[in-house]
Design brief:
With 403 residues, the protein is of the alpha/beta class. It folds into 2 domains: 9-211 and 356-401, Rossmann fold, CATH 3.40.50.10540; 240-326, formyl-coa transferase, domain 3. The chain has helices at residues 18-27, 61-66, 80-91, 104-108, 112-118, 143-150, 170-193, 203-208, 214-224, 258-264, 285-300, 304-313, 324-329, 331-335, 377-383, 388-396; strands at 9-13, 32-37, 70-75, 95-98, 124-128, 198-202, 240-244, 247-251, 318-321, 339-344, 348-353, 400-401. The strands form 3 sheets. A 7-stranded mixed sheet has the order 6-5-4-1-2-3-12, sandwiched between helices. Strand 2 (32-37), helix 2 (61-66) and strand 3 form a beta-alpha-beta unit. The longest helix has 24 residues, at 170-193.
């Protein structure tokens, strides 16, 4: 069955995390995503984990996940012939997406003005750390820098210790999801109105405007000078990770609904005391300590799934914290068909995370694994009008790499 985006061709110049995740969402729903890799390949090919713990550009789990259903072409854009090939590929594309440092494409002569003059209806989406202009334009970024600059680093962690960020590359993945929305909007305008536009997507802006406390904290500081503080278990915020009989569970903002908390715990006799109905109870250190004693005792008598079930029944925001193996074995994910089996020439056959959501009439499909480096170079050049002899000559000149 055809995917919902199977008539869309994306010229993908992105690398590392954010851009490839954004374009992956399109590829997995049917779009023809042509991944142009530099000689040597996307740097994400050097990121672990690696199959059998052997570092190899074709065995990177990170690269594999971010680039399923794409076709790979290795192209040296610093050579004139490479830029000529790029121009031909632009002629067949619906949109171009890139995440080089600001100014790189312009310096190569294939930036927005070039694309717009050649194909006025084709948009260009430029993804960068701090945007294409402004005082931070040329600053380097990383997951930690971006999380500190525009994330919620300031309020995460214990007050007595250093602030902490979420594990791994969560911020960059989140920005990739946001960038996919920008790509879709640009595609729709290009298709429906024949208007190409240059979309400037700053990863920092996507975090400053995020719903995870960031914009609320920024607005509060702007108008009142109030800075949110870090705390973990020091107040009856009931927000954070708590131990239970077989692991840990996480609660969010439950102190605003102490009646629901009491319901979750079976409405014990102690919870009927009127003092718990006073909104000021959550700020009283003595009452916080008393409540914590009851709460921890209740948690330690129950498993994660038992706590989770009672929280759902009482409409308390709570979730169990599972290990990776437990998520892999989880019957819910298995029943929903989340894990997909894939076969790769270097990594063999294994299961990987599949569809992010379900579309019954035009479903997600794993049509091909992540590409080998330059796997589709010759194929794509033929589609662009090059003869086999020309392709061999370009390969001999190291303009392209053909497997």
């Amino acid at each position: 069955m055809a995917g919902p985006l199977d008539d869309l061709t994306i010229l993908d110049l992105t690398h590392y995390i954010t851009g490839p995740y954004a374009t992956k969402l399109f590829a997995d729903y049917g779009a023809d995503v042509i991944k142009i890799e530099r000689p040597g390949g996307d740097p994400a090919r050097r990121l672990g984990p690696f199959k059998d713990e052997q570092e190899h550009p074709e065995r990177s789990g990170t690269f594999f996940y971010l680039n399923t259903n794409k076709r790979s072409l290795v192209l040296d854009l610093q050579q004139e012939q490479g830029r000529d090939i790029f121009a031909r590929l632009v002629d067949g594309a619906d949109i171009v997406v890139e995440n080089f440092r600001p100014g790189v494409l312009d310096a190569l002569g294939i930036g927005w003005e070039f694309i717009h003059s050649r194909r006025p209806g084709v948009p260009l989406v430029s993804i960068s750390n701090f945007g294409q202009s402004g005082p931070y334009r040329d600053y380097k970024g990383s997951e930690l820098v971006l999380y500190g600059f525009a994330g919620e680093l300031y309020t995460m962690g214990v007050a007595e210790r250093e602030p902490v960020k979420m594990y791994g590359t969560a911020a960059l993945i989140e920005s990739g999801a946001a960038a996919s929305t920008a790509i879709m909007a640009a595609c729709m305008v290009g298709r429906e109105q024949s208007i190409g536009q240059h979309v400037d997507f700053a990863i920092t802006d996507s975090h400053l405007g995020g719903v995870d406390r960031r914009h609320a904290s920024a607005i509060a500081y702007e108008f009142s000078g109030r800075k949110p503080l870090r705390h973990a278990g020091s107040a009856m915020g009931l927000g954070g990770v708590y131990p239970c009989a077989d692991g840990y569970v996480e609660f969010t903002g439950a102190a605003r609904f102490l009646d629901r908390m009491a319901d979750m715990m079976g409405s014990p006799e102690w919870s009927q005391d009127p003092k718990w109905a006073d909104p000021r109870a959550v700020a009283d250190p003595v009452l916080v300590e008393e409540f914590s004693g009851h709460f921890y005792a209740w948690l330690m008598d129950r498993t994660r799934r038992e706590v989770w079930a009672e929280a759902r029944r009482a409409r308390v925001v709570c979730g169990p914290l599972f290990t990776v193996q437990e998520l892999f074995d989880d019957p819910h994910f298995r029943e929903r068909g989340f894990w997909q089996t894939v076969t790769h020439p270097e990594m063999g056959t294994f299961e990987m995370p599949g569809r992010p959501f379900i579309m019954n009439d035009s479903p997600w499909e794993l049509r091909r694994p992540a590409p080998l480096l330059g796997e589709h170079t010759a194929e794509l050049l033929r589609e662009a009008g090059y003869a086999d002899g020309e392709i061999e000559e370009l390969a001999a000149q190291r303009v392209v790499e053909v497997r």
